[in-house]
Structures are given as structure tokens and as C-alpha cells.
Specification:
Blueprint (H helix, E strand, L loop, with lengths): L1 H6 L2 H6 L3 H19 L18 H20 L2 H32 L3 H23 L1
Helix pairs in contact: 4-5, 5-6
Organism: Cryptolaemus montrouzieri
Protein name: Transposase
């Protein structure tokens, strides 16, 4: 990059009377130099993208559910059963939020966004039909 910057005729840029044209020349010179020195690298996306469902919130809530379940097994009280039920209701919401966030990052990082969106939809449809099959 330094060699490219040395070859630029800086006097042409400073002698330009129009500030807009001087800026355009300066910007194109820097842009060209950067593109030569640091070529764009495209990240290849994995086709078998999996949802990890592991986030700090989900881990903390899962530990809280396990602790509440242990307390309920020991005490067998209505209040501990109620706390366990509330925590269990929040766990799927945390999983859903984590899945949404990971899908959004996956789509934003992809080069072919429409294809990636269809891939995500297909995978989520498969997940929902598996869950329906488990319930039956």
C-alpha cells in the first residue's frame, strides 16, 4: 500500500481549484490503493448451518429451571411448583429469541440473501414439523 501511495501525484490533488473534484481524485486514489493492497475476501457460508441455542440468557435460565426443579422435588410445595412453571414457560421464548438472532446473523453474513432466507425457512419448517410429530 505504501508503494501505491508513493506513486500518487499529490501535487495534482492540491492544485485542483474545485474541492469536490479534488476530493473525488483523493478518494479514488486511496480506494484503489486499498483495494489493491487488501482484496475483498468473501466468507463461504456453511450450508448445514445449525442453531446452537446456547446463549448466556438460555444457560442461566436453564440452570435456574434445574435449580427450581430440585427445590420442587425436595419441598413439594405450591409456591415452588409455581416458580418452576413460570421458569419453564420462559425457556422456549429464550430459545426462540436465540434462534431469531442467529438466523438474522446468518442471513446478513450471506452473499445470496434470498437463497439463504429460503434455506432458513425450510429448516425452521422442518423443525416445527418435527415438534408437531413429537407432540402427536
Amino acid at each position: 500500500m505504501i508503494c501505491d501511495l508513493r506513486t500518487i501525484h499529490w501535487t495534482e490533488l492540491t492544485s485542483e481549484p474545485d474541492a469536490g473534484k479534488a476530493y473525488e481524485k483523493f478518494h479514488s486514489a486511496i480506494h484503489t490503493s486499498c483495494n489493491k493492497s487488501f482484496p475483498e475476501v468473501r466468507k463461504r457460508m456453511k450450508t448445514n448451518h445449525r442453531i446452537s441455542r446456547v446463549s448466556k440468557a438460555s444457560l442461566a435460565l436453564r440452570k435456574a429451571v434445574e435449580a427450581a426443579h430440585t427445590i420442587y422435588r425436595v419441598r413439594r410445595g405450591d409456591s415452588s411448583k409455581e416458580i418452576l412453571g413460570v421458569l419453564k414457560k420462559h425457556l422456549p421464548n429464550i430459545y426462540t429469541d436465540t434462534r431469531k438472532q442467529e438466523n438474522a446473523e446468518y442471513i446478513l453474513d450471506s452473499t445470496d440473501k434470498s437463497r439463504t432466507v429460503w434455506r432458513v425457512l425450510k429448516r425452521n419448517l422442518a423443525l416445527s414439523t418435527m415438534q408437531i410429530g413429537k407432540a402427536a
